[in-house]
Amino acid sequence: MEGLILAPNDKAKDRLKMKRRETSHARTHKTFPTLLIGKLMIVALALAIVIWLSFRAVLPTRSTATTHNSPTPTPSQDTIRFATNAETPVAGAKEVQVTLAEFSVKSTAKDFHTGIPYYFVITNSGQQVHEFMIMPVKPDGSPEPPGVQYNAKLIEIEQIAPGSTVYINFVFLPSKAGRYEIACQMRGHYQAGMKLPIVVTR
Asked: What CATH number does residue 172 fall under?
């Protein structure tokens, strides 16, 4: 009888199958929570990324654009900072009244001289925000390219609120004799006709 292997009977076979099932069920029972937690963590991470991207899209970003290239905010926005220039006239200054409106510029003077102090009283009588600029034009009176206009401007007062008045003293230097325009370069205003030719002589 040595070397003879007895086959397990049917009851033994059933016990063996049951034991295997219990072992398999225990393994599954132990790994199921681990799998569920792993899947929940992946879903939570995906939701966190989506929320972060949504907030990032809504939050304002820092702009590297210069003031001249940024769009003009409407008066109803909180971010607008209106000009508040309120200088008093220097002794002997000649007063110049400038009126800005949609879409025109009027001035009580168009001929200026170097070395003389001028006191500009600039009123925005329009319904929109305007600005006051004195910028060069070509010798024939045609506009310079925008880059030249901004780089060679003599004065720029931005964001003059509707119905407000600003005051500034200015002296044209002898080196600045030439042809200029009083203009508003708010978005589209210059193209709509907000410019007035002036001449500065020595």
From this structure: 2.60.40.420
